[in-house]
Design a protein that fits this description.
Strand 2 and strand 3 form a beta hairpin. The protein has a seven-stranded antiparallel β-sheet. Strands 14-13-12-15-16 form a five-stranded parallel β-sheet, with helices on both faces. The protein is built from four helices and 16 strands. The two termini are 31 Å apart. The radius of gyration is 19 Å and the shape is globular. It folds into two domains: 10-135, Translation factors (Elongation Factor Tu (Ef-tu), domain 3), CATH 2.40.30; 139-259, Nucleotide-binding domain of ferredoxin-NADP reductase (FNR) module (Rossmann fold), CATH 3.40.50.80. The chain has 273 residues and is α/β, with parallel strands linked by helices. It binds flavin-adenine dinucleotide. The site of flavin-adenine dinucleotide has 28 residues, from strand 7, strand 9, helix 1 and strand 16.
Length: 273
C-alpha cells in the first residue's frame, strides 16, 4: 500500500439550503431521537463520507417556516439589517435514501438549545431547513487499522464509519454514553472491537472516562487512522495521545470537537465549514 493510497481527499458539494418536512420521529434511546426529514427539495442531495454533516435551521417564534440562510456561491451572506438571523446547528447525515428522498438525523436530547428542543418536540409535518453538506472528507479504507471514538453526538458518524468499513478491515471503537441505556447496536462488516464507556452520573463534557479507555489502547502493527467526534475539551488530551504517544501523523488524525460544554453553537472548523 503506497502513501498515495492513504491520501485523505476533500470534495466540495454545491451549497444549497433545502426546506424539508418531518416525516417520522423515532425514539432510539432515552436521550436520542431519530428525525426523518423528507421533501422534493432533497432531490440532488449528496453525501459521500461517514462524517458528512449538514446544518439544520429551525423555525423561530410563532412562524412555522424556518428562517433560511442566504446562500451565495462561496458561502453565506448576512441577513439585511433588522431581518431575523437563521439559527443553524450541525448534525450528521445518519442515512440518506435517495429513492424516497428521506434523510435520517439522530439528535441528542440534552436539554436547552434550539437543536435539542426541536428534536424533543418534533412531529410529522414540522418544517426544518437543511443546509449542505458543503463537502466530504474521503478517508481511504486502506489503513491497517482504525481507532474511532465518540460521545452521543458523534455516535451517528461512528455508526456510519463502522457501516462503511469493508470486510477485512480492523477497527477499535470507543463510545462514551451516559449509561447502558444509551448504548446502540452497531453494525459492521469489518472486524470491530467496541468499548462502551459510561459517564455514570458525571455530566457530559466533564468526564475523563473516554480518555482513560483510549489510553489503554495498544495499536496493532501497521498504519492506523484515528477519527473522533465528541465534546471539545474531552478530546484535547485524546488528540495529544494519538499524535504524541501513538505517533500518528497529523493527516491521519481527524479529531473534531462537536460541541463545547457551556457554549451554545460551538464554532467548529474542519475544512468543510
Ligand atoms: C460535524 C458535527 C456533527 C454533529 N452531529 C451531531 C449529530 O448527529 N447528533 C447530535 O445530536 N449532535 C451532533 N453534533 C453536535 C451538535 O451540533 C451540538 O450538540 C449542538 O450544540 C446542538 O445544538 P443545540 O441547539 O441543541 O444546543 P446549543 O444551543 O448549541 O447549546 C446550548 C447548551 O447546550 C450545551 N450542549 C450542546 N450539546 C450538548 C450535548 N450533546 N450534551 C450536553 N450539553 C450540550 C452547550 O454546551 C450549551 O451550554 C454535531 C456537531 C458537529 C460539529
Amino acid at each position: 500500500m503506497t502513501l498515495e493510497d492513504r491520501r485523505v481527499r476533500i470534495v466540495d458539494h454545491p451549497l444549497a439550503a433545502r426546506l424539508t418536512e418531518v416525516a417520522r420521529v423515532e425514539r432510539l434511546t432515552p436521550a436520542m431521537v431519530r428525525v426523518t426529514l423528507s421533501g422534493p427539495s432533497l432531490e440532488g442531495f449528496r453525501e459521500a463520507a461517514p462524517a458528512d454533516h449538514v446544518k439544520l435551521y429551525f423555525a423561530q417564534g410563532d412562524d412555522p417556516v424556518p428562517v433560511a440562510p442566504i446562500v451565495r456561491d462561496d458561502g453565506l451572506d448576512d441577513p439585511p439589517p433588522g431581518a431575523p438571523r437563521p439559527i443553524l446547528r450541525d448534525y450528521t447525515i445518519r442515512y440518506f435514501r435517495p429513492d424516497v428522498l428521506e434523510l435520517d438525523i439522530d439528535m441528542v436530547l440534552h436539554g436547552d438549545g434550539p437543536g435539542s428542543s426541536f428534536a424533543a418536540n418534533a412531529k410529522p409535518g414540522d418544517l426544518v431547513g437543511v443546509l449542505g453538506p458543503r463537502g466530504s472528507v474521503l478517508v481511504p479504507f486502506a489503513f491497517d487499522w482504525y481507532i474511532l471514538g465518540c460521545d452521543e453526538t458523534g455516535l451517528p458518524a461512528l455508526g456510519r464509519w463502522l457501516e462503511a468499513l469493508p470486510a477485512g478491515s480492523r477497527a477499535f471503537a470507543y463510545c462514551e454514553v451516559a449509561d447502558a441505556s444509551e448504548e446502540q447496536e452497531l453494525r459492521s462488516d469489518a472486524g470491530v472491537t467496541v468499548t462502551w464507556v459510561h459517564r455514570d452520573g458525571v455530566p457530559a463534557g466533564r468526564c475523563d472516562a473516554l480518555e482513560k479507555a483510549v489510553r489503554a489502547f495498544t495499536p496493532p502493527a501497521g498504519d492506523g487512522f484515528a477519527w473522533f467526534g465528541a465534546e471539545a475539551t474531552t478530546l484535547k488530551p485524546i488528540r495529544r495521545f494519538l499524535r504524541n504517544e501513538l505517533g500518528l501523523p497529523k493527516d491521519h488524525v481527524d479529531v473534531d470537537g462537536y460541541w463545547k460544554a457551556g457554549k451554545a453553537d460551538h464554532d467548529h472548523h474542519d475544512g468543510r465549514d
